[in-house]
């Protein structure tokens, strides 16, 4: 249960004064729907209104706050000329300028003969000091409210600064004083203030420096966030390794026969990775290893051998994929091998229902099944393994940490192997997995042809379609990937369906459509027709992104390539170039492109190396944005910026380790405070494990 002290932060923004249904919807879109989310909506700029000269001394082109007396109003003589209000102080005169103004409204705000505080940008025309549309025009008693530094927040359509600032201010007023979770010596050494004071300071920048990641206030908040992240990972890890690992040692018989029936020779990388994994399994420590390998580097084969080792030792092995399509594909790849080796293999997905499902579950529970392929359905509590020794998670960036954990809990000391095609830099790895042993597949299987990648403006879509027509005539299979539309996958779907209708008109029933909203069986049927049957042109949303293998497909068209992350484009492109034929990837873009977008598409043309592409993307867009994409599956940070806070991450990691040594169940006063920290950063799942553990 969430600590009571945090309740005010988790209330909806609609409870704030002045935030009605319209604004709360807008704020929810912009920052999130809770008070806490507005607190984390940090300023990106500031307006300094502290400069407060007399009219005679005022320097133009600066934002200033002046105390003036209204002399007279000069209404606009015609629609193109502005309304003017002449003002003075004891040193001189100035003019306030208003375009399309309502005179009665200005008369009320600026009555002749009255003193007012005005604030805005000054300009000088010849001798005349002017201010167009002052940001503030208030009575004298509000001077102190105006003569400050105003934070500038990121906005969105329909959201303007003034009401948003007010809502954020109201949110900050609800921030409780929380007990300190930092180690005292670190806090002193860094000269950090309390968490709530830092949060308020961050929202009231006094200089441009304070807006950067290096401001001490932001650093403290970033540290809190990284500590929450590292502590959560440590807690999860503690659970994973609490059960002692077991020695899994097979006699090698299945693996030997597998090498004989494998239709290719393992690459050096594959061989090396398999050795590393087997060594982990044979040790008495619990394995937690990541296999990183580009799309097409042959991770499935790498997973297969340790699974066989587990089965040789008399135990079970499970392989889990993030989508139904992928699970089915793995099953199709592995089933013939299993049959030849005399191994019993089953597939379990959410689609299996009723009697059939019951039978599968029973065979898993009584050990009749040795190898299980599945989707997240394997995570469910009703599933009991007779003796699970190895769990392989493919393309795990789609799974959450706690899902990984629930699988590991299915067997005592289950060894875990996680496979990913996402090239993750080391610092980012730490935030996602903590310390994890890594095997990398750097070599590609022989005979792979690099994909010829071209960029084409969407204006030339007719040429592209004609090119596709020619290729189809020559018996080629073609993927057509539809754009990622922001906000809702509904509109993704609409775009794909529209393209499908259009292309069907031209190519008839050779066109197929596959998208995330389809039922599993429908999806499979279409994929099957594309792989083997009469569908030659497959319109797809990004559901095909991971893992699908159709070697005859040699052309891929990607619409609105500029909207995709590079890693994602690279993954998509990995679907082709799998056979011996030359493959082409056409990245269609909607111009005009900015410099960054141009550079990003250029990398895709020039490089075929996932790690190079990821590094370049990181460099061009910054960690925030690369990681900000929901697809990455890596943790997103509200304050921490890994490009700037790498050292803090290292400290947080050590800190978390110490905490786990000294107070692994978070019972001490500091431990209690750390629980609040975990809730504050919504790492509740980790706390849950703490309780059950
Ligand atoms: P990944 O999952 O890493 O993207 P896969 O395991 O799906 O890649 O392998 C891609 C293709 O490469 C498959 O068709 C597979 O049979 C083939 N393959 C894997 N290893 C080798 C190898 N050593 N030599 C030749 N082909 C291989
Ligand atoms: Mg794969």
UniProtKB/TrEMBL annotation:
| Listed EC numbers | 5.6.2.4
Question: From the UniProt record, which GO molecular function terms apply?
Answer: 3'-5' DNA helicase activity; ATP binding; ATP hydrolysis activity; DNA binding
Catalytic reaction equation(s): Couples ATP hydrolysis with the unwinding of duplex DNA by translocating in the 3'-5' direction; ATP + H2O = ADP + phosphate + H(+)
Q: Name one GO biological process term.
A: DNA repair
Give the matching InterPro entries. ATP-dep_DNA_helicase_RecG (IPR004609), DEAD/DEAH_box_helicase_dom (IPR011545), Helicase_ATP-bd (IPR014001), Helicase_C-like (IPR001650), NA-bd_OB-fold (IPR012340), P-loop_NTPase (IPR027417), RecG/Mfd (IPR047112), RecG_dom3_C (IPR045562)
State if Chaperone is listed as a keyword: no
Task: Give all residue intervals belonging to the Helicase ATP-binding domain.
Answer: 280-441
A Pfam entry, by short name: RecG_dom3_C
User: Start and end of every Helicase C-terminal domain?
Assistant: 460-619
Q: Which UniProt keywords apply?
A: ATP-binding, DNA damage, DNA recombination, DNA repair, DNA-binding, Helicase, Hydrolase, Isomerase, Nucleotide-binding
Q: Which SMART domains match?
A: DEXDc, HELICc
What family does this belong to?
A: Belongs to the helicase family. RecG subfamily.
Main function: Plays a critical role in recombination and DNA repair. Helps process Holliday junction intermediates to mature products by catalyzing branch migration. Has replication fork regression activity, unwinds stalled or blocked replication forks to make a HJ that can be resolved. Has a DNA unwinding activity characteristic of a DNA helicase with 3'-5' polarity.
Q: What is this protein called?
A: ATP-dependent DNA helicase RecG
Name the species this protein comes from. Answer: Kiloniella litopenaei
């Amino acid at each position: 249960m969430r600590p009571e002290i945090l309740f005010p932060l988790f209330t909806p923004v609609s409870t704030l004064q002045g935030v009605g249904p319209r604004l709360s919807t807008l704020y929810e879109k912009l920052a999130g729907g809770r008070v806490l989310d507005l607190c984390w909506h940090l300023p990106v700029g500031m307006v300094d209104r502290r400069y407060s000269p007399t009219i005679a001394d005022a320097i133009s082109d600066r934002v200033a706050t002046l105390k003036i007396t209204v002399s007279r109003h000069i209404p606009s003589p015609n629609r193109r000329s502005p309304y003017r209000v002449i003002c003075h102080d004891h040193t001189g005169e100035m003019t306030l300028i208003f375009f399309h103004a309502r005179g009665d409204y200005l008369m009320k705000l600026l009555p002749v003969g009255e003193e007012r505080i005005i604030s805005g940008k000054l300009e000088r025309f010849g001798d005349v000091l002017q201010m167009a549309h002052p940001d503030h025009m208030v009575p004298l008693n509000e001077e102190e409210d105006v003569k400050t530094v105003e934070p500038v927040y990121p906005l969105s359509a329909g959201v303007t600064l003034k009401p948003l600032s007010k809502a954020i201010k109201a949110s900050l007023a609800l921030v409780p004083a929380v007990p300190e979770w930092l180690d005292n010596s670190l806090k002193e050494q860094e000269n950090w203030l309390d968490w709530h004071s830092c949060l308020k300071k961050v929202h009231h920048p006094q200089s441009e420096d304070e807006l950067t990641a290096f401001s001490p206030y932001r650093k403290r908040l970033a540290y809190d966030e990284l500590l929450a992240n590292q502590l959560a990972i440590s807690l999860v890890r503690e659970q994973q390794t609490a059960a002692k690992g077991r020695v899994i040692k097979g006699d090698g018989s299945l693996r030997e026969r597998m090498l004989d029936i494998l239709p290719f020779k393992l690459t050096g990388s594959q061989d090396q990775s398999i050795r590393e994994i087997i060594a982990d399994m044979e040790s008495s420590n619990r394995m937690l290893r990541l296999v990183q390998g580009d799309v097409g580097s042959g991770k499935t084969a790498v997973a297969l051998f340790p699974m066989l080792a587990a089965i040789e030792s008399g135990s079970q092995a499970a392989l889990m994929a993030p989508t139904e399509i992928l699970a089915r594909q793995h099953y199709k790849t592995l089933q013939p091998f299993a049959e030849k080796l005399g191994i019993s293999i089953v597939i379990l997905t959410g689609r299996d229902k009723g009697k059939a499902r019951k039978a599968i579950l029973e065979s898993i529970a009584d050990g009749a099944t040795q190898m299980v392929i599945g989707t997240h359905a394997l995570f469910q509590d009703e599933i009991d393994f007779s003796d699970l020794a190895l769990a392989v998670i493919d393309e795990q960036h789609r799974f959450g940490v706690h899902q990984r954990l629930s699988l590991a809990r299915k067997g005592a000391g289950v060894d875990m192997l996680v496979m990913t095609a996402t090239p993750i830099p080391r610092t980012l790895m730490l935030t996602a997995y903590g310390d994890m042993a890594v095997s990398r597949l750097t070599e590609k299987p022989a005979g792979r042809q690099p994909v010829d990648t071209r960029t084409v403006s969407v204006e030339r879509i007719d040429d592209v379609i004609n090119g596709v027509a020619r290729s189809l005539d020559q018996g080629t299979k073609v993927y057509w990937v539809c754009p990622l539309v922001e906000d809702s996958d509904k509109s993704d779907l609409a775009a794909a369906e529209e393209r499908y209708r259009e292309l069907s008109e031209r190519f008839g029933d050779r066109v197929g459509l596959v998208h995330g909203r389809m039922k599993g069986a429908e999806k499979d049927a279409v994929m099957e027709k594309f792989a083997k049957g009469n569908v030659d042109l497959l319109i797809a949303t990004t559901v095909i992104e991971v893992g699908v293998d159709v070697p005859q497909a040699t052309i891929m068209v990607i619409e609105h390539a500029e909207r995709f992350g590079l890693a994602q484009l690279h993954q998509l492109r990995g679907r082709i170039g799998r056979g011996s034929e030359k493959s082409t990837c056409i990245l269609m873009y909607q111009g005009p492109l900015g410099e960054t977008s141009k550079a990003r598409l250029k990398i895709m043309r020039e490089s075929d190396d996932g790690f190079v592409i990821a590094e370049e993307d990181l460099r061009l867009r910054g960690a925030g944005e690369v990681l900000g994409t929901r697809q990455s599956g890596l943790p997103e940070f509200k304050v921490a910026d890994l490009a700037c806070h790498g050292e803090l991450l290292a400290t947080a990691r050590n800190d978390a380790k110490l905490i786990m040594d000294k107070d692994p169940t978070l019972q001490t006063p500091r431990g209690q405070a750390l629980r609040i920290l975990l809730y504050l950063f919504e790492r509740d799942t980790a706390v849950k494990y703490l309780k059950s553990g």
